[in-house]
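Hey team,

Filing this mostly as a record. A colleague (T.K.) asked me to run one chain through the structure pipeline before their review meeting, and I want the input and output archived in the tracker in case anyone asks later how it was produced. No errors, nothing strange. Just documentation.

Input sequence:
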Amino acid sequence: MRGSLITRALVALSALSVTFGITQAQPVQIVLWNFNDSNTVADGGVNATISSLSLVGGTTATFATGSPLDTVSPNQGYNTTNYPAQNTGNLTAGIVFNTPTTGYMNVTVQFDVRWSNTASKYLRFQYTYDGVNWINGPQLVAGAGDQWYSQGPGAGSRFSYSFFADTSADNNPNFAFRILAEFAPNENAYHSARDGNAAGYRTTGTLRYDLVEVRGEVVPEPASMVALGVGLASLIGLRRRNKR
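Output structure:
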């Protein structure tokens, strides 16, 4: 009887540990900007109140029609412009999102971006762990002018970058990312999104952002993990002693 009770308890605790693991691994929205209220305040997410965005390199912005992936009306996006003159300011102008990941791990960043015809064809995704030193991520390349990423390179999806294998992004109050205009590869010049050459680039070209989102999983509480481990170990010990 005692052995049967221990076995049932062990099974129950094991099931609880599996449930606990599944619960912890559910993605949580850390922050979201959809710009549908025509301001730059974060629109959702558990860390929305401590997240912010800013423009760098002299860029300015207004609001215009948002991503086709957003079916909510009114659908708005953040339309940036006033980029550097040709042959100047490589990787200096764009938009910065300060998105603390405090309490969360296995972070993923997603957003949609629209290139106007005369905007820089090449963009660079960068991120930081300390708010000071920036690391190059992927380069984004326009599929065409007057087109969203989701309509071209994204094939129906937003740009997405995962930090699953990068623990430096976990539970980090200084985590941030930015998207900057970049010169064409091996050249000292911006290329335009439509024509793909330097002649077509204009400082008045626009880059429009929408559905900017950071997601992650809850960082397990150490006390909960320890208690679960102790409980399992105790039951296993009892079961072994009962078999002697």
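Quick notes for T.K.: Residues 5-23, 224-238 have pLDDT under 50 and may be disordered. Residues 2-24 form the longest helix (23 residues).
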